[in-house]
Each structure stands twice: as structure tokens, then as C-alpha cells.
Specification:
Number of domains: 2
Strand content: 15-25%
Largest sheet: 8 strands, mixed
Shape: globular
Bound molecules: ligand MTE
Number of helices: 9
């Protein structure tokens, strides 16, 4: 397992984080100025005017706005670690494999199909989806079921905004996400005994919670392939495996869908997969986690119920036995 940074880290891989922090500070300054009544224009509009990057020709850069749903002031995990310590089993089983092997994932043209319990099936082009709503910067804690964690500045908008475009029927009680799968591209998938494509799902009310993020980027730029380009879901109060990458199909369903890890090992990976320090994985404790990228002596921290998002999501599970519905 890759714990520290390799000594040959390129400066090009460090720069985006430094730039991003400067960018966030500039936005914070402008927002404070606006709040103090020093300026008459909207802070985000001003940030766009003053953000020299907004006009840059770099096609990986995304124009973004601040989000009030940014939820943590913790130190961000480095761009390098977020993009070189991944689970994306279509591209290999080791954490460093997706960065090496996902380069061939064809992210354009790309469409997302909507099917199932909807007024009529739809197909969205990825570039239309990118323009559907202003893209927000949302810093979330990211907790893997394997008891490691990161803090990631994602870019996207609430999945509920997308659902509004889909006209689901009242009978739609669940949403299923299916990832891209092509055995000629995802050659490494054969190394596992997983049934492809990767499938994940949420109950409709979970999917509609504003924290559930339809995610197009991180650190202000488009998602690197290994992080689920060009579009993935991020559900910050659940273990990372609920966050399907490189989504090609969204299905609205009446019944709970089959999901990859729950099918693989139902006693180890529940459908709900809420971060819960009180319910251990059968083979390890979930009470603590290892924060990737920090010095060894600072890595271990206490895992928080719902990954620290209780105020926003605990209501979804009122009356449910979370030991049974783990
Ligand atoms: N999505 C697909 N298509 N394939 C995968 O193997 N792995 C899941 C999830 N989404 C996975 C996936 C798991 S186990 C985790 S922990 C997160 O992605 C990891 O996301 P990250 O690599 O961006 O940290």
C-alpha cells in the first residue's frame, strides 16, 4: 500500500493544490468584502471577474462557485494522493493501478442514459450536463470502508438538480448508478471475480439529499480518469464504495437494486453503507480511520457517525435499526 509520497513527485502534480488554495482564499476575501457592504455586485460574479483562471484556455479547468454545503475546514488531501490512491477495480486491484491503467477510458463523447420509472427515457450529453447548473466547490470528507479517509474538494452540483430534469414517476423509490464497462478498455477487470458493470444505488430520499453530489471535477478541474471521469456520484456520509464512478446509466426503480459489493459479500457490505463507528466490519473495526497523506503520527483519527454529517442526514434513518441496515 502506498502510504507516503514517492520522492519523485512532479511539481506539476503539486501546483493544482497550491493554485486552488489561492483561488479559495481570493473567493473568501471577495465574499467577506461583499458581506461588509464594500461592494455592490454579487460575490460569486466578482470572483468570476477577478478569477484570471476563468478565462484560461486550459480545458481541464472548470468555472466554479462557492458552495454553502462545503462542510469541513480540515486540511485538504493533496491532489497527488487523491489521484494516486484509488479504488477503481475495472483498472486494477492495487491502489496505484487506476492512475496507471485508466488513461484509455474514452471520456468524450459520453452520454448518461436515464431509464426505468420515468415519464420517458432520456439521454444527456456530458457537456450539456456540465452546463445544467453552476458547478460548486464542495469540500467533503471521503471515508472508505477499508478505514482510510481523505478530504477532497469536489466540483459538481446536487444530484437532486439532475433528478428534476428526469421526471421520475411517483413509483420510483430507488436510484441505481451503472458505471462504464467495456472489457477491451477495462482489461484489468478480469483480474477480479466482480460482475460488471459496477452498480450502486440509493433510496430516493438519500439521492435527493442536497449533499449527494453529481461530481464532474476536483481541485477546480475535470475529474482525472482514475477518479471516475467524466461524471461520478459522491455520497459523503456513506462509505466510498457507494460512490459509483464513470456513470453511463441512471435507473429509477421501484425495488432496491442489486449493488456490486452487496452482491459480492452481503455480510460485509450492506446496501446502506452509512459510515458508522458503532458497527464494525466483520474483519476490522470501523471506530478509527487513517487519513491518507498526513505524517504517520497524525494519521489515525476517530471515525464520526455518518462521517460527521449527522445534522444533515440522520433524519433519513429515524426508526431504522442501523445494525441490521448497515
Ligand atoms: N466505481 C467503479 N466504477 N468501480 C470501482 O471499483 N470503487 C468504489 C467507488 N466507486 C469503484 C467505484 C470504492 S470501493 C471506493 S472506496 C471509491 O470509489 C474510491 O473513490 P476514489 O478512488 O476516488 O477515492
Amino acid at each position: 500500500m502506498l502510504i507516503g509520497k514517492p520522492p519523485d513527485i512532479l511539481s506539476s502534480e503539486i501546483t493544482p493544490q497550491a493554485e486552488y488554495l489561492k483561488y479559495l482564499n481570493r473567493r473568501r476575501f471577495l465574499r467577506n468584502a461583499a458581506a461588509a457592504g464594500a461592494v455592490a455586485l454579487g460575490a460569486d460574479r466578482l470572483a468570476e471577474i477577478f478569477d484570471p483562471g476563468a478565462a484560461a484556455a486550459d480545458e481541464t479547468k472548470l468555472q466554479t462557485v462557492y458552495s454553502p454545503l462545503t462542510t469541513t475546514g480540515e486540511q485538504l488531501t493533496s491532489f497527488y494522493d487523491i489521484t494516486h490512491y484509488n479504488n477503481f477495480y475495472e483498472f486494477g486491484v492495487n491502489k496505484s493501478d487506476p492512475a496507471k491503467n485508466a488513461g484509455g477510458l474514452p471520456t468524450r463523447p459520453w452520454t448518461v442514459k436515464v431509464e426505468g420509472k420515468v415519464k420517458k427515457p432520456l439521454t444527456f450529453d456530458i457537456d450539456a450536463l456540465l452546463k445544467l447548473r453552476p458547478l460548486e466547490n464542495r469540500v467533503y470528507r471521503h471515508r472508505c470502508v477499508e478505514a482510510w479517509s481523505m478530504v477532497i474538494p469536489w466540483v459538481g452540483y446536487s444530484f437532486s438538480e439532475f433528478v428534476k430534469q428526469c421526471d421520475p414517476l411517483p413509483s420510483a423509490r430507488y436510484v441505481q448508478f451503472l458505471s462504464y464497462y467495456n472489457r477491451h478498455v477495462d482489461k484489468w477487470a478480469g483480474e477480479t471475480d466482480i460482475y460488471w458493470p459496477y452498480s450502486e444505488g440509493l433510496r430516493m430520499d438519500e439521492a435527493m439529499n442536497p449533499l449527494t453530489l453529481l461530481t464532474f471535477g476536483l481541485y477546480g478541474q475535470t475529474l482525472p480518469n482514475q477518479d471516475g471521469a467524466p461524471v461520478r456520484i459522491v455520497v459523503p456520509w456513506k462509505y466510498g464504495f457507494k460512490s459509483a464512478k464513470s456513470i453511463v446509466t441512471v435507473r429509477f426503480l421501484e425495488k432496491q437494486p442489486h449493488t456490486t459489493w452487496n452482491d459480492q459479500a452481503p455480510t460485509e457490505y450492506g446496501f446502506y453503507a452509512n459510515v458508522n463507528p458503532n458497527v464494525d466490519h466483520p474483519r476490522w473495526s470501523q471506530k478509527t480511520e487513517r487519513r491518507i497523506g498526513l505524517p504517520f503520527y497524525k494519521q489515525i483519527r476517530t471515525t464520526l457517525m455518518f462521517n460527521g454529517y449527522s445534522d444533515q442526514v440522520a433524519y433519513l434513518y429515524k426508526g431504522m435499526d442501523l445494525r441490521k441496515n448497515f
